[in-house]
Amino acid sequence: MYQPHATRRNRLLSTLGDGIALLATAPEATRNADCLYPYRADSYFLYLTGFAEPEAVLLLDGRSGKSILFCRAKNPEMEIWDGFRYGPEGAKEAFGFDEAYALDEMAQRIPDLLADCRQLWWPLGHDEAFDRRVNGWLDGVRRARAGTHAPAHYGDLRALLDEMRMVKDEAEIALLCRAGEISAAGHVAAMRTVRPGQYEYEAEAELLRAFVRRGARYPAYESIVAGGGNACVLHYSANNARLQDGELLLIDAGCELDGYAGDITRTFPVNGRFSAAQRDVYEVVLEAELAGIAAVRPGAPWNAPADAALRVLAQGMLDLGLLAGSVDGVIESGDYRRFYMHGIGHMIGLDVHDVGQRKQNGQWRNYQPGMCTTVEPGLYIRPAQDVPEAFHNIGIRIEDDVLVTADGNEVYTAAAPKRVDEIEALMRGE
Ligand code: GLY
Ligand code: MN
Ligand code: MN
Q1: Atom number of ligand 1 nearest to Cα 221
Q2: Which atom of ligand 1 is nearest to the CA of 399?
Q3: What is the mean pLDDT of residues 354-361?
Q4: Catalyzes what (predicted)?
Q5: For residue 143, what pLDDT is reported?
């Protein structure tokens, strides 16, 4: 049976030599009084374990090749209140660890395991509270019987895991594609139901309903549901304005499925019909997005989609009369940033803005099969005297999630329509 988490642990173990890696999951977070935020395990921890209970710690021992979990003990009393816990035996069985122990055994077992290990890897500085615990365990080794040594070398575990996480494996690709499909279904539901006079949060409700009823309980990030000029606020999240006839609605939203993020933006007319000016700007952004997507292929440098999309946007800004001069001129001067002020996209995976270095030794890295990126150009036109009035308050972004394949790419969020005729047909109920 294919066990993706055990396979990832074994890959990491094979790079540790005689070192040890330690990783804690995320702490719980208080929202207010005795209410907690919905719990979300740490992404690195999910990547290596799939185990989503709070408080857990993973130890990988390169010398023995063992994966050892420390987790909450079974507790029938607490389980009456808070629900099922695996407990060490259950977790070992269900998640394929070599050994598993209750949390109260960490104080003894971890210093014993660290004794005479040469190198310790953990996400140094990621969580101060965990840094202090690691220091405590190291002190435990130093205080132990004479003749044992604490590790002399420390490394940041993130450096190893980020490289692994940049290239998605089969199980991750399946989850990302499903998260993409569910996210697309949310956008389709919003397009089908939006009407002038509704509030932005009514469209948000349609998105969330579509996510939850397909098993994705939470969005991957705060949904942006921005009518009219609100679309020019890049991280708009109030989502409480009334949608007016004649406005566009920009929705940037994606679900999280088993930890994996979807991230889609669509922009469409509240009344179902693009005006001539809206369509003119929209076609520029769509052409830029398609040019960006076409540049995502194995062997191409990371910045190729950014450059391809920017040239289309710059030409569009000149054609629309937003800027004067030449494509090279407005790119060189940076004048285009008045209407397009963000990057082309980001890797996507367990984190919506996923980990991984895009440059190595100062050079852009090349795309490899299994990498996933977003492509998300936009134009944001705030009212100003030197801008034709028909374009005032038009904010448009179009965003898809793209998997690099052996011979090109796959846009796995394509089920959310983005051509003008497709959007208008969907909104007419066809
Ligand atoms: N919604 C976050 C992003 O598009 O990057
Ligand atoms: Mn987005
Ligand atoms: Mn994005």
Answers
A1: 1
A2: 4
A3: 94
A4: Release of any N-terminal amino acid, including proline, that is linked to proline, even from a dipeptide or tripeptide
A5: 86
* Gap between the Cα atoms of 230 and 120, Å rounded: 48
Single out the catalytic residue among 252, 256, 400, 424.
252
Tell me whether residue 28 is one of the annotated catalytic residues: no
Average pLDDT of the chain is: 97
Collapse the DSSP code of 213 into the 3-class scheme (helix H, G, I; strand E, B; otherwise coil) and give the result.
Answer: coil
> What's the average model confidence in pLDDT over 362-385?
98
| Interval 170-192 mean pLDDT | 98
Question: 200-217 b/e with 16+ CB inside 10 Å = b?
Answer: bebbbbbbbebbeebebe
pLDDT in tens, 4-18: 999 999 999 999 999
Asked if residue 421 has pLDDT above 90, the reply is yes
Q: What CA–CA distance (Å, rounded) separates 19 from 60?
A: 9
Asked about 342 being catalytic, the answer comes back as yes
Token couple for 158: 């993130």
Ligand 1 mean position to 256 CA, how many Å?
13
What distance in Å separates the CA atoms of residue 65 and residue 17, rounded to the nearest whole number?
9
Rounded Cα–Cα distance for residues 349 and 354 (Å): 6
Mean pLDDT along residues 135-156: 90
Contact 164, 401 (CB under 8 A): no
Q: Which residues contact 425 (CB under 8 A, 6 or more apart)?
A: none
pLDDT at 1: 62
Instruction: Look at residue 144 and tell me whether its pLDDT is greater than 80.
Output: no
Told to judge if 410 belongs to the known catalytic residues of this protein, a careful annotator would answer no
What does the alpha-carbon distance between residue 319 and residue 285 come to, in Å, rounded to a whole number? 13
| Separation of CA 293 and ligand 2 centre (Å) | 15
Please indicate whether residue 391, judged by its CB atom, sits closer than 6 Å to ligand 1. no
Check pocket membership of 204 for ligand 1, CB cut-off 6 A.
no
What is the reported pTM?
Answer: 0.97
Token pair for 276: 């001539």
Which H helix or E strand runs over 363?
A: strand 363-364
